[in-house]
Each structure stands twice: as structure tokens, then as C-alpha cells.
């Protein structure tokens, strides 16, 4: 037998990478049963996620125009940064509530809305205040055409200029940043439209005070008052 034949019959050593052989490297990390199990667990985890729901998600990235939110679905969803009342306060890994509009658009992306989630979350409270005539606290945020945007429970409402005060207001900016009680005078859920009035609250308070004063007024009393208007036939005096 020649040396060449002997060399050919000798078993070849398999290459070793570190402490791992190439066979171990090529071996699948998970077998088919494990993969099926993982798939089933994933499908189970997203089976409860349905369109038209408010879901919790985690902020994973923040861009100039949108915020990417992970709701545990197969892809992340984008939320316009304009839907956040204070974009500077958004943090990575922050938990947010969003409304799931569509599990997959034409580009295969989840469609989310924070404004819709905020609106739906407080809708019952707002509707109850509207139906009962109770007041709600709100903060005047910014001036827009015809009035001021008011923050109610984290959602935006519209305060018409004519409803800011009993008297005509020319400088809307003086009210920005202040908090007042408001009456909700108009609601449209489909359009997410809320109209509020501070004037209605002031008129109600003035009416209540007038009734109290009338109850204690007696003929011959001397009371202090403020002249509000002078006409040909007399003067109007505010007694408080």
C-alpha cells in the first residue's frame, strides 16, 4: 500500500472554531416543535389586539414629525408628534395609551392615534358634564381664529371668543395659561368636537348672587353700588 493511499484513508479532522465545531455551528438553534410553540405564543399574544380599541404601548423612538410606538404587534406604529400636548416631555420607553385604527395599512404599518385614545378615555366624563350641566376645569392653552383652545382632561376643546366673559373681550392673550371652570355647550363625538363656555358659568353665578341680594333687600336700606350705565331716564347700579 502506498503512502498516498494510506494518507487518503486517514480520517480528516473537522475544523474547530474556538471551542465549537462547524457541526454545532450549523445545527439549528431551535427545532421545528420549538418554532411552532413560539409562533403559537406570539399569535396568542396578539389575538386580543383588535382595531377600534385603546391599547397600551411603549415609545421606542422619537423623530421630528412622528413617534414610533410598540404595542406588542408584529410591527410598530407611528403617531404624529402633533398629537402630544407637550412633545418635549416624551421619553423613550415611556408608556402611552393609543387608539388602534388599523392593524395594517397599505405599507404594512400599524396605524395609531393618541388624540383619539385621549378623547375616548375622557368621553364619558365630558358627556356626563354636558348632560347634567356640571362644570369642568380647563386650562386655556393657545389662541386660534375665533377663540381659544382649552385643555380638558388632556383633550382639546374650543372656547369661542364670545364665551370667554360676560363682557366683550378684545385681548384673548391675557387669559392664556389660566384655569377656569367651564360649561360644555356643544358635543360631537364623531368629529371629536367639544365647545365650552366660561360666560355661561359667570352668568349662572351672577344670577345666583342676584337672587341672594334680592332676598335680603329691604326698603330704606343704604347699600353701596357701582354705576354701570346712565340713560336719559336714570342710572343702572350694580349692588354686587
UniProtKB/TrEMBL annotation:
Domain S1 motif: 52-115, 133-199, 220-240
One of the record's GO molecular function terms: structural constituent of ribosome
An individual GO BP term: translation
Keywords: Ribonucleoprotein, Ribosomal protein
Keyword Ribonucleoprotein among record annotations: yes
Region of interest: Disordered: 1-22
Pfam families named in the record: S1
UniProt key word Ribonucleoprotein: yes
Entry GO CC: cytosolic small ribosomal subunit
Family per record: Belongs to the bacterial ribosomal protein bS1 family.
Name by which UniProt lists this protein: S1 motif domain-containing protein
Organism from which the protein derives: marine metagenome
